[in-house]
Fold these 3 entries.
Entry 1:
Amino acid sequence: MKPPLRVLVAKPGLDGHDRGAKVIARALRDAGMEVIYTGLRQTPEMIVNAALQEDVQVIGLSILSGAHNAIVPRVMELLREKEMADVKVVVGGIIPDDDARELERLGVTRVFQPGASLDTIVACVREAAGLQ
Amino acid sequence: MVHNQFMPTRGPAFYQSGDVANPPAAPGHFPYTRGIHEGMYRTRLWTMRQFSGFSTPEETNRRYRYLLEQGQTGLSVAFDLPTLMGYDADDEMAAGEVGHCGAPVSSLDDMETLFAGIPLADVTVSMTINSPAAVIWAMYLVAAEKQGAQWANLSGTLQNDILKEYIAQKEYIFPPRPSMRLVTDTIEFGARQTPRFNPVSISGYHIREAGSTALQELAFTLRDGLEYADHAIERGLGIDEFAPRFSFFFNAHNDFFEEIAKYRAARQLWATLLRDRYGARDERSLKLRFHAQTAGCTLTWQQPYNNVVRTTLQAMAAVLGGAQSLHTNSLDEAFALPSEAAATLALRTQQVIAYESGLAAVPDPFGGSYYVENLTHRLDQCAREYIAKIDSMGGMVPAIEAGFPQAEIAAASYEYQKNVEAGKTVVVGVNRFQEQAEKPLELLRIDPAAETRQRAKLRELRARRGGDEVRRALGNLARTAEGGGNLMPPLIEAVRHYATLGEICGTLKNVFGTWEERPVI
């Protein structure tokens, strides 16, 4: 049997609204994945280090505060620097269309905007890890 | 799990006289189920108070003047995330976040700019700030004084509800116990110096936004209020010295009748609890006054014009439930901070309700409705069970430290989301009645140059102020924090010398430490 998929759910930036992050973490766990939730106010450095130490295949970032353009590119850059480009990144939150396209151009696998269903997110995380 | 016990839609198919106990007392009479005043809106309409702040203090000041010109009757300040977390705009932790979710205020200088040309002696101001509330309030008091206003005449509200931060919104800096000291300092200072200012606004809004049920919002909020009262009494204040200035802040969510019943239950519970637990006698202590805001979490990104309809229904529930002030959300707030056009429409929504609909004609028009009376009674009873459970844990601070309210809310929010997934809870435009190809809205974009400007202003401020005075004031603050005196006087002294928010919070962090929760998922 294959070991379960490991996912880091992270909440970067100063915002404390963690309802979405926690619901996603729980849904991924209920779907049989091993979920590590970082808690609040993680810097890009902390997130990438946690991803390395926990040996995850996917990182999920939850950002509602409008700080995604400062945070996400830095996470992608650190992943490249640490030769962790095989770790896939998905982002969820209040991300305007133009910004979502730009983040996907920087290598983010998928950006989920408000209203995305849990089923879609679970399926996308599996797919990102090459399981479907 | 207590939260499953209350499900309004799973009750009987209809209600009749046998489902209702005795009719409640008239409006304006104990326990104030039907409203805190006899005349209610016929005597005085609610305050239309739209939460607003973005970009820079200058931009926000322009929006405030615009809103006042449009007939808004009070101000409500939104601070940005660095300010809410006690960081200056030029702190590296603030990078990319300055001015995005509110106005940046790093010093007295920014506070003076925010209210330039707005007479603080006449306009009531509500400030949504929690962990660093005492510091921001000190800046506000000095800014008002410099305008020539007397502290004793200032009227407004400081949110300053740290308990719901640990429970729900998570904008905390210090551990719960020193945070409770800061809140108690402001309550004590307010009772002596600012008799018309509400030093704390005990908030269910954020608890609900974090995914709680109406019952949890009601129960946790009132239990938080009791916790603040316990601490103030321990400080040596009499209940009737401070409780008249407690104000509340509730969500106005989708379930119309449940929300009306929630406000009614909150009033009767608070009056009864204050009388029975503390022997409060002043009727102003017993009367629960509240601000309501329509539920941000119900706004959808899909078909955003539907949000106007949602907001209207929610605002109607708040008015029919007897709110003292109200914020109506803008239709574009699932995307961004509101544009001027969207903010204006949100204000017009309240004005239509107030002046055209007849909803304000008599207090509590649903009083005596079998259904609403039954819901009110059941919410009251179930909330008492929750409150007793938290009492048995030793109060709200120990309950928070044990993760109890956090876990209850996380469970409720996950259950809600699963119901949306399964289509059991309908969200129009999201899981039913979807449309392809929607028209995009014109959104407010925050100019990234705002952050650069704020940083430059702070650099100039640090160069121009008296460095020795700032150091002395911060040293004095640290000594009081280490000792036991009220922190408001040294905070006021520090901000007067233009010590910044970040410097002051840094000084307090050195003494109090910081807080990190063990996340509950």
Entry 2:
Amino acid sequence: MVDRADARASSGFEVQLDDYSGPLDLFVYLVKQEEQDLLGVSVLKIVKSLARFLAEGAGSDLDAAGEAVLLSAELLFLKSRMLLPIPLLDDEDDDGMAQPAAVLVQRILEYERARAMAESLREKEQMRRSLWFSGDSEGYAEKEEQEIVGASVVDLALAFVGLLSSDEMAQVQCIEREKYPIGDAVVRMAGVLKQKSPASMSDVFSHAQSLREKLVFFLALLELVKFSHVVVFQRRDSFNIKLKLVHDVDLLRLRAEMGLEADGGTSPDSQGEEMR
Amino acid sequence: MSAPENPIDPQTIRMVIEAVLFAATEPVSAEQLVGLFGANVSEEEIQESLSMLWEHYEKMQSSLQIVKIGGGFKMTTRGQYSSWIEKFFTKRRKVSLSKASLEVLSLIAYHQPTTIAEIDHVRGVDSAGVARGLLKRGMIAVKGRKKTPGRPLLYVTTDKFLDRFGLDGLESLVRPDEIDERAILKGFPAEEDEGGA
């Protein structure tokens, strides 16, 4: 979004993209700032300002440069829609072809509603932040975060290989199709972590017996991480990777999300995700 | 309903609930409290004890209060003492969420389950990065995939979201239709305007 302090209508626009929230945001701001109607907004000024922004060093920041270009293009698009001739239509045909101005106003209205809702959330957040409670861990979270580092997929894969015995490693070449639905393993692993979290990766994987089951467990772990149910971390001074539930997972809901039947069976949709 | 095996007197119930609310770091639901007492205390007794406890803290003008938040109850300090507490801990709360994050969160909250593409459409800008950040913070979660081409992920808000904003439930949010359209469109041309550039 435009930084209000840096967007000056009088001496041209200085657009700062740090807190940029999209072309609609900028467009609405400019309309209100200049107290003009949608057609009165000078896109030329904005584009010139963005061109200057690119020339003055933003070229080295591809993300910022990309956003600047996107912003200009979107603003031009918005204004071009306003300049389109209004088709002469019978009232009866009005439903099918909305006028460009009406479409744009509708879009802005929708965006402004979202913005108003976000503002109401901001107020609620401020009120909530003034409340403290016993064991409020926010003050201590910073220290804990310094001590732990996120584990990458490579770390996980290496740790997983470390969990396999040499016999199991030899079997890796001949994995045959077997029915180990990943969804089942996801729910099982979440169940294990509900008992104890955080838990070491080796403890969690000790619940899987065969090599195939362990492989499915590994894929299940990736799923749990992907769906933000679990975080994986290790302390800087330790090789031990730990798994932690991010929140209290409802296993019944998780079963439904994984496409599993209530009785533990697998729905037809999830058959394709079985371990092969 | 059968008579409780070992009835507990109302004052003890209130004190136990008070102790639990004081010690708990997460909102405590009425169901959890029913589970705590088992068959000895009915849900009605729990509700009654909670409201008496709430009244007690209101009447004695304590710096503590009991609030309904995130689908449960929490004992917190009152807002006016926040600056003193911050001064005592010599550190401020973590920074609040960015404007972009709040926009994405509010859109997910009202339209959930929804996809990133649907959010992008309203905001007119890519929201995938913001959504990833919110996922990491546990404010939103993935709840399956939409049955459309590409099977995009569907996002919903979490209990952590309710807690973060002090909401008892999603119904506590301002509804989109409660927002005055006329106020939004102030300064914009009326639809029938056909003025030139």
Entry 3:
Amino acid sequence: MSLALAIVGTVFLAGGVFFCVVGGIGLLRLPDFYSRCHAAGMTDSAGAMGILVGLCFFAEPLVIVKLLTVVGFIWLSSVVSTHALVKAAYARGIKLENPRVRDWTVRPAKTAAAEAAGDVPKAAKVPSLDLAAMADSDADAGSTSGGEQGLAQSHGAESESESESESESESESESESESESESESESESESDDSEESRT
Amino acid sequence: MDFPYATEVFFSAALGIVVTMSLALLRSILGPSTYDRILALNSFGTKTVLLIAIAGFLDGRPEWLDLAIVYALINFIGTLAVLRFSKYGSLAAATQPSDDEEEVPERPSLEQP
């Protein structure tokens, strides 16, 4: 009986150590602050739970209570501190690195200019998260590059990593969006106009 | 303990956690922004809790778990304190930053260029 418990505990420990090491590699390798937050939060919840619950199978009852206290506290505090960290970083303006992901709280520069001119009422400042529009922009490569432009313009910087775009099979639209993002630094308004006419 | 390989199991688990801690420390050294460093240090602290727990079992003294509990508490408070410091520039600054922005002191530039 004790041997069976120890084997189950060993399995839990191995799973926890696996999650910890994978989370550490993700913390080192992922390209973006927010994806690194994902790796660290994953490690904190799954890895810590696996290791501490695995230790429970080797322990006495009072020690089990202590271990479960640590598990519960880590579950609460890790989530709270990760949330506070991401919110502080987002308020500070840490940017997303993936050019195919659109930040939905950042407006494209053209709409912001139109709003500054007084065409659009101020009430529509932050757009609500429209799932149908998101699905459309996923399906359509043109509008995806539009979101890329809006993101890149609003942050004033261009991400160099085009590896994900190159790995896609749809080569024509991908090369189009690549050339667009290359020529964007020279003529921002021009590519914006062509983007507008295409959509 | 009837299980004959308990020491080996605990030792290999502690080794994996030490590897993860070194990866997190590398991120905290490399990290381009301050938030990367805070995140890596938070992860490092959580791994320290796990390492203390496993070291207690490895040494046959699970009472070290009390230290692990205290370390988890300090880690959480420390992360929030560092975040608050990096947001307000002081641990005793005003709490509400959004409504009256004149009251909040200017934040020092903590990010690396």
